[in-house]
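Incident log, support desk, overnight shift.

02:14 A customer reports that sequence design results differ from what the structure should imply. Their input is reproduced verbatim below. On-call engineer (initials T.W.) acknowledged and began investigating.
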């Protein structure tokens, strides 16, 4: 039986995929809801370069705070449109619980993905969108990928490298990441819903 980090609630089986750092999780008093949305299409991943605010200078999916009266799914659609100009049939695929010592709340981030989108991708005040090549994409997509850079993990939140492979593989995942005030990752844990075994009968 796995012991889940404080803040992670899941009623079912999870398989541990990453675990490391210090011994003790940071305390937190309350949490706020956020969203983060990723478009994965034809061997490519759409990220945005964050031009202002929290996480400035990092590449990320498109997202932000869930407003009062909104569901996370509604907020994810609104933030995607506000930050990149597009809409998409977003599907919920994960939860990231994120704690930073000098912020008075923990972040509960619902993570969404889509393989289609509508509209024209535009640069906005907050984000500069850019496509990146997926690792190990299938041969038919390589033309689309040829001028693209790989996913820029060196310029992303330091926990993303642990859960991004799960997102790209359409796995459902949950995890927690604690940071220090300088943006260094201090402790992390990620788990995934086990894949249904293929029935070989
Ligand atoms: N990929 C990734 N995203 C994270 C991590 N931590 C974290 O807060 N985020 C995301 C969640 C949100 O999408 C975003 C923070 O939201 P934000 O400050 O941009 O919120 P917002 O757009 O509502 O803010 P604002 O326009 O009101 O200034 O950063 C992390 O470790 N990895």
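02:41 Re-run completed on a clean worker. Output:
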């Amino acid at each position: 039986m796995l012991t889940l980090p404080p803040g992670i609630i899941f009623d079912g089986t999870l398989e541990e995929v990453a675990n490391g750092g210090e011994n003790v999780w940071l305390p937190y008093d309350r949490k706020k809801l956020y969203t983060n949305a990723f478009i994965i299409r034809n061997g490519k991943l759409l990220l945005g370069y964050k031009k202002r605010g929290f996480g400035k200078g990092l590449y990320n999916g498109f997202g932000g705070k869930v407003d009062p009266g909104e569901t996370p799914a509604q907020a994810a659609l609104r933030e995607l449109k506000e930050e990149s100009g597009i809409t998409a049939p977003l599907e919920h695929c994960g939860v990231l619980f994120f704690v930073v010592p000098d912020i008075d709340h923990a972040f509960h981030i619902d993570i969404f993905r889509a393989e289609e989108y509508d509209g024209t991708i535009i640069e906005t005040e907050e984000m500069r969108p850019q496509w990146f090549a997926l690792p190990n994409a299938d041969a038919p997509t390589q033309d689309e990928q040829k001028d693209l850079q790989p996913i820029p993990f060196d310029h992303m939140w330091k926990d993303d490298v642990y859960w991004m492979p799960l997102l790209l593989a359409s796995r459902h995942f949950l995890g927690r990441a604690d940071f220090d005030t300088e943006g260094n990752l201090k402790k992390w844990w990620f788990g995934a819903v086990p894949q249904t075994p293929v029935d070989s009968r």
